[in-house]
Write a structure and sequence with these properties.
This protein is of the alpha+beta class. It contains 5 helices and 9 strands, in the order αβαβαβββαββββα.
Length: 178
Amino acid sequence: MTNTIFKKLISTTMTCAVLFSFTGCANGQDANKELEIKEINMEVLQEMIADKETFTLMVERDNCPFCNSMNTYLEETKADHKGQYNVYRLDTTDYELYREAEGDMTLISSTEEGKQFLSIFPYFLYTPSIYKIEEGLPVDVGIGYDEANYTISNWNVDSTINWEQARPIDVWTYLAQE
């Protein structure tokens, strides 16, 4: 009888050990996941902000050489930078964002989506821009892309960027920040 109890104890211990190892592996997979950027539109962005979500937003446009260069770098190096990322991409190509007068440091738009975008990000001026959104509020931004150093220029969201005072930060370091 003691032998039967001992066998059940060993069996239960082994089962728990196996289940624990699977659980550990499942949790570890998220930390070893490669960057995946999800495409969204203005409607989805507004829902995420209304739902007070926390995420990273990459703002880009077609024919932006800095966007293309940064995306190529991210794609080529994502296997070396595994982790948990919550990154979305918004293409603003069709938002007709422009300066009303030469030298203006803010943009305007003639499209509804562009106006909605600028109501959330009033100091947006350059692509790429990578916004950190916490509980539905933009709190930080990385602007531009320096392909020689793989950096973006870190700035606050409360004013147009001052390139002389902005802090360069590695694009992967910025994406990994929570």
